[in-house]
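Design request, tokens follow.
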């Protein structure tokens, strides 16, 4: 009774990281034919048996008709997905002596097999690449490696099909990710709404959350969609971190690599798993895909309250932790929350031109869907009113994205310089110290907070907005005018308020 055994390296995704997995293949000759995969595997991994069988035969290799056992170790780690196909096939070929064992040495194999033996790409290749580099392996995957970029210190090898294993012929990796379009919407296309544009400039400069409330057709969505045009590009480190999340989710990473910050706009019918993350295997949700970018919740009042309130924890912590029986998975989620909502079900409460048809209880019920705790975590609240027809049809455009972007970049650069020279942290006390308020302005702000029954969180967030306003003007001290503008963006005029 003969015995063939081989261990090949592969990996499994765990959050936005890949963890090494030993693919142990044992082939016993002279026993009843069987093919089993063990090691806490899901249905997709179990299906590998049929794909590998057919792929080996179609590629001209012998499929051993004996007892084949594949163990994916460690067995305490749940294995999911079709990315183990290639490693299992390589292990079987080495164990039966059909290819040179040296081909598998020092390499990490990840790929799905077609029934014809071709190697297909899988999601999360960037995470697999970083795992291979950190453990000193070369990465072997499909030649058409979607979502993979060159990684310093890593050898990337491409396979077209199992036939290439006969000679150990590897190819250069080709990434056919679509290039992003070079045209972005510009704020100059929006006539009027200058207060809204100013609010977005402040939000972009300080990464503040922003809530817009107003009737249908007032331009809320147009204002939000143009926010990426005034945000600074991602730096090299940020590109890698954001691209990693999008690679794991199977999203196109070309816009990220071009420096564009993510702009995610989930539909109001999104589930908790879709918005926050979850599923089996656990995947990043919209809040993580918006990491270092923007999460735009249009028609926020239409989201299910139970789903919407789950945004609160990521807003505070900048991450999402999802607990499962086999452990906790953490995804980064530091994003700007931009929200838009009608003030009521019919949309015209507070509109001077059209009468609202909702009752007072209906209006209160609609606005309470967002919830006070979540509203308290959004820094800037503005009312967006419909622009007069004369301004809409006027050929003169309003403030452009280029003009707003100048203030955003100046504010961020000054804030960075100020923090470095003041050597302050990120606590509430540090924020208050960094504002350099004089005694008179401090008393004024305290009176305003008392009159408007502002919570502690609201006070801190309003002060943070005032600090950003001063940064845009490149001033070390926050003035009374800065406080008034920040309060104006926190205490709305009354449109959409009971």
């Amino acid at each position: 009774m003969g015995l063939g055994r081989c261990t090949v390296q592969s990996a499994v995704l765990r959050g936005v990281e890949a963890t090494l997995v030993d693919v142990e293949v044992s082939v016993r000759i002279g026993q009843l034919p069987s093919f089993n995969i063990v090691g806490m595997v899901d249905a997709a991994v179990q299906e590998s048996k049929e794909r590998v069988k057919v792929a080996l035969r179609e590629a001209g290799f012998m499929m051993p008709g004996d007892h084949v056992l594949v163990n994916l170790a460690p067995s305490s780690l749940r294995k999911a997905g079709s990315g183990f196909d290639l490693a299992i096939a390589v292990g079987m070929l080495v164990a039966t002596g059909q290819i040179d064992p040296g081909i598998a040495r020092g390499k990490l194999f990840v790929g799905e097999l077609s029934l014809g033996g071709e190697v297909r790409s899988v999601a999360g290749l960037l995470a697999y690449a970083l795992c291979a580099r950190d453990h000193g392996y070369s990465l072997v995957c499909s030649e058409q490696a979607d979502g993979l970029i060159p990684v310093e210190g890593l050898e990337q090898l491409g396979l077209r099909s199992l036939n290439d294993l006969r000679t150990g012929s590897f190819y250069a990796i080709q990434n056919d990710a679509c290039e992003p379009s070079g045209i972005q919407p510009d704020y100059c296309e929006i006539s009027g709404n200058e207060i809204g544009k100013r609010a977005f400039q402040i939000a972009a400069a300080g990464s503040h959350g922003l809530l817009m409330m107003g009737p249908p057709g007032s331009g809320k969505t147009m204002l939000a969609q143009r926010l990426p045009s005034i945000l600074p590009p991602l730096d090299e480190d940020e590109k890698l971190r954001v691209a990693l999340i999008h690679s794991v989710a199977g999203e196109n990473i070309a816009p990220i690599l071009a420096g564009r910050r993510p702009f995610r706009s989930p539909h109001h019918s999104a589930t908790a798993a879709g918005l926050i993350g979850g599923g089996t295997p656990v995947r990043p949700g919209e809040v993580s895909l918006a990491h270092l970018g923007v999460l735009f919740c249009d028609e926020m009042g239409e989201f299910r309250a139970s789903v919407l309130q789950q945004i609160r924890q990521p807003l505070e912590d900048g991450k999402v932790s999802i607990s499962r029986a086999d452990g906790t998975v953490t995804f980064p989620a530091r994003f700007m929350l931009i929200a838009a909502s009608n003030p009521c079900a019919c949309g015209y409460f507070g509109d001077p031109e059209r009468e609202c048809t909702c009752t007072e209880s209906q209006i209160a019920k609609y606005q309470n869907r967002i919830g006070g705790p979540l509203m308290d975590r959004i820094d800037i609240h503005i009312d967006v009113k419909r622009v007069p027809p004369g301004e809409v049809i006027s050929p003169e455009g309003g403030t452009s994205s280029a003009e707003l972007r100048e203030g955003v970049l100046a504010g961020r650069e000054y804030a960075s310089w100020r923090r470095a020279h003041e050597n302050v942290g990120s606590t509430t006390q540090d924020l208050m110290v960094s504002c350099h308020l004089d005694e008179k302005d401090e008393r004024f702000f305290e009176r305003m907070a008392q009159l408007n029954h502002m919570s502690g969180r609201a006070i801190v967030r309003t002060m943070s907005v005032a600090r950003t306003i001063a940064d845009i003007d490149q001033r070390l001290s926050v003035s009374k005018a800065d406080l008034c503008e920040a309060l104006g963006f926190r205490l709305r005029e009354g449109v959409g308020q009971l």
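Comment from the thread starter after seeing the answer: thanks! The mean pLDDT is 89.
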